[in-house]
Structures are given as C-alpha cells and as structure tokens.
What does this fold into?
Amino acid sequence: MLSGKRIILGVTGGIAAYKAVQLLRDFQKAGAEVRVIMTPDATRFVGSDTFAALSRNDVPIHIFPENHSGSSETWVKHIQWAEWADLMLIAPCTANTLAKIVHGFSDNMLTAAVLAARCPVYICPTMDGEMYHAPSTKRNLQLAEDMNFRIIPPESGYLASGLNDTGRLPDADTIFSHLFPNQSSLPLANKKVLITTGPTREFIDPVRFISNPSSGKMGIAMAKAAKALGADVILLHGPITEKIPHDVTALPFESADDLFALVQKHGPNCDVAIMAAAVADYKPQEKALSKIKKGDAEKTLFFTRTPDSLQWLGENKKAKQILIGFAMETDNLEEHAREKIGRKKLDWVVGNTLNAQDSGFQHDTNRVLLLSSKDEKFSFEGLKTEVAKKVLETIFQA
Ligand code: CTP
It folds into this structure.
C-alpha cells in the first residue's frame, strides 16, 4: 500500500528507539523505501548497524563523521536525502530534538535534514510525562504546529520511568493512520466525519452578543481522536482561541444560522456527525444596525428560535449515517441526555455536567456519560483528549 513511497525515519535518543526498528519493518512490509537517520544519543539505545542492515543503506548520524575523508558526499547528504524523501517521520522524538528543530538548530544529520526538508515532517513527541507537560515542551509543540510540522500525539500508559502518564510512542497502526489516513485498516479510514465545536454568537447590536463559555476543547479532542482512527475530518468551529489541528478541514461559523448553513452543505455527505458545539437556542428578534445607547428605562429584548442543526441531521438522516450528539446539563444528566437520543434521532449521546469541578466548559478534563440508542451505557473521565479517544474507540470498536 505504500509502494514507491520514500520515507526518512528519524530516530532520537529515547527508550522507545527500539520500537522504531519494528516501525521500519512495517513501512517496508507496506512497500515503502525507508532510510534511517539517527541522532548520536539514539545509538545508545539501538545500534546503527541494526537500522543499516534492515534499511540496506547507510545510517548517517553526524554531519562531519570522525573518519570524514573530505568528500562532498557525506556533507551534502542531509540536502540530498531531504530532497529524496516524500515524508519524514521522527519517532521517537525527544524533548531535546523537538526543541532543536523548532529553533532551527542543525547540529547533527537529523536536525540538518529536517531544516532542509521540503516534504511533510511528522513528529512523535515521546518522553516522560513530566517532560511532556513541561511548559517549554508545550510551547515547543505549539511552535512546531505553527511551523506546519505534523504532531502525532503520544499515548498515555505505563512509561519507562514506572509512572503512568502521557508520553508513550503510539503503535504502528496509529502512526500509519496519521501518515496515510485513507489507506489503513482503521475503523474510520475513508470515512468523512463532520464535527462541530465551540460557541455561537448571536449579536444584539454591532458591539454586543449572546454566547456561552464553550472553549471548543472537547470538539477539537474529538477531531484529533477521529483523525487517529483514520477519518477525514471537517471541523466546523465557532469563535475559539484553541489551536485547530492542521490536518482537518476547518470552517468557521459565528451564529447558529451560519452553523446551520454549513451543516446543510456538509452534513448530507458525511458518514459520521459529532455535534459538540454549544449552540444558542434563541437569537434576538432583531439585530440593531447601530450601537444601542443606554437610557434610564428598563429594556426588554425579544428572542426567536434558532435552527437546530442536529435535529435537522436527524430528520434527514442517511442510511448508515451515525449521529453523535452532546448534552451539557446542570441536572438529571442521564434523563435529559437520553431524551435527546429520541428527540434528535441520535445513535449516541455524550452527556456532560456542569456540576463537577473538573468537567464542562473550559476545562482540559471532562467526565462524560456515553449512551446509545440501544441502551448501552458507559462513563469516562480524564483529559478531554483521552475521553474523546475512549468515546470514539467505544463507538467504533477500535
Ligand atoms: N444542537 C445543534 N443546534 C442547535 C442546538 C443544539 O446542533 N441549535 C446540538 C448540540 O451541538 C448538541 C445537541 O444538539 O449536540 C444538544 O444540544 P443542547 O443545547 O444540549 O440541547 P437542546 O436540544 O438545545 O435542548 P435543551 O437546550 O433544552 O437542553
């Protein structure tokens, strides 16, 4: 399936370097031609001869090797190899190499090749949890995204330090799904997934609007989880400051009417819709064209209903389409969430409550109740990224 693809696998000095050996084999089995570049520290974990034998090629490490004969061949290798590659993958990528890359260092063959690359460069940040959560790593990952490096997020689990945290190298299937989303055997490969996230704004006059505190974090977490399962994602997002993943088609909306127009356009073609946006149910009957000036008298505003995008998708549901709604409640979570399954013709609803400190609007964490139209019931809690992953893995039995 990767026949003719030319891949540079960059391996850096983390314990997961041994997993890169299998990754190389998996790429080759799928038909790709792979060349490996190691950082000097990576050779402490796996011998460069292993990669050389398996890739049937040199494994450059230094730009100026010790026995460098002065030939031009060695020192232009980073340029030649970077031109040769269709894509570069750095797996594992340590915090150190990540920091070097985003600051333009080129002190070894791998960082120099990254600097010279014209092809997409994928990075698998892999490190201990504390290092992954460190402000400098977070900032460097943000910089990497801004520079169009493609980040394949690490997984949570048992780490080499003995701690249970985020920082593990994902398995080959997950990495493949990020690199070649349409060619994998993942459950959402070749599936179009429409996701809505963030708040709406209903303007009263040019300077005031009605909205809610939705940050868009849960929908973005859903987008990342859907990508990891191989999906093509269209992300419809309200006004949010959260970073939008580079590998989705992102379309902005402001009001519930804008959202409805986008859903009518893109909804009918999607295989799955995940509606996480916090949509205003009412809008001011009239929007004043000029700023409303204050007076001494009390003021009354009249509201009309907005279109319900999810309700519309339910009423126009295509065969085999899967509709996943959200329910944000303050009380009787299960009852209200279940009622939405029937009313909006949903397959699944993700209920969350505003009553717990670590869930709901703005938080990085959430506690959700996942209910199906077939009366299945699950609950998940943790980081929104983890919760989103569990929700989609449960629904699509990944
Ligand atoms: N939704 C939507 N368009 C709307 C309102 C809601 O697409 N105009 C979607 C939300 O994105 C969510 C689901 O419908 O997936 C439920 O939204 P919610 O506001 O909780 O429910 P409502 O149907 O509006 O009912 P109520 O506000 O009475 O709880």
